[in-house]
Specification:
mainly alpha, 69% helix, globular, 5 helices
Length: 122
């Protein structure tokens, strides 16, 4: 698992990182990961229902953060490939490999979240 998890200069993003708005994220998902649109729509509906039920915008805020991180990773082919390999190792590997993969997934997601929040690479 010695592969670097940060984005290198040769890993040009497929699209610019969109603003953390529902329409911009939906358009980005449509362009770079159209198979994820049903999940996006379902999770948006769930977040909207939770927000209405609790009179709280936190579920919608969490939704936009989650999908901003997803788009950040998917727009970088090397990061997306690394995440898929780590997820595969977590599901199919030995207990030790699964622990290492879970650690790698956590680090990758933390780095993507930092980047989305303005503290990381583009």
């Amino acid at each position: 698992m010695g592969e670097a998890m940060t984005v290198g200069a040769s890993d040009t993003p497929l699209i610019p990182q969109p603003p953390a708005s529902i329409p911009a994220l939906q358009q980005a998902v449509r362009r770079i990961a159209p198979a994820a649109l049903p999940a996006f729509t379902r999770e948006l509906q769930e977040a909207a229902e939770s927000a209405r039920a609790g009179s709280d915008l936190a579920p919608l805020s969490q939704f936009t953060v989650h999908w901003s991180v997803y788009v950040y990773i998917q727009r970088h082919p090397r990061l997306a490939g690394r995440l898929r390999r780590l997820e595969d190792a977590a599901e199919r590997g030995t207990a030790e490999e699964a622990r290492e993969a879970a650690t790698g997934i956590g680090k990758l997601l933390d780095e993507a979240l930092a980047a989305v929040r303005g503290g990381g690479t583009p």
